[in-house]
Specification:
This is Bacterial bifunctional deaminase-reductase C-terminal domain-containing protein. By secondary structure, this protein is mainly β. About 0% of the residues lie in helices and about 35% in strands.
């Protein structure tokens, strides 16, 4: 869906990585995708919420 320009906004809530290097959120894309972060919230438990706009 990202490759076809069908997504104009992403909201991600992430937990901190304790072990290892983490898991990639997205596989390889056919073209570069330009996103701008428009909002970030942090929580006391370490979670991070980020909102991006295409």
């Amino acid at each position: 869906m990202l490759d076809h320009g069908l997504i104009d906004r992403l909201i991600l809530k992430r937990a901190p990585c304790v072990l290892g290097s983490g898991t990639p959120l997205f596989g390889a894309c056919a073209r570069p995708i330009s996103m701008s972060r428009i909002r970030t919230e942090t929580y006391e438990n370490g979670y991070l919420l980020e909102e991006f706009e295409a």
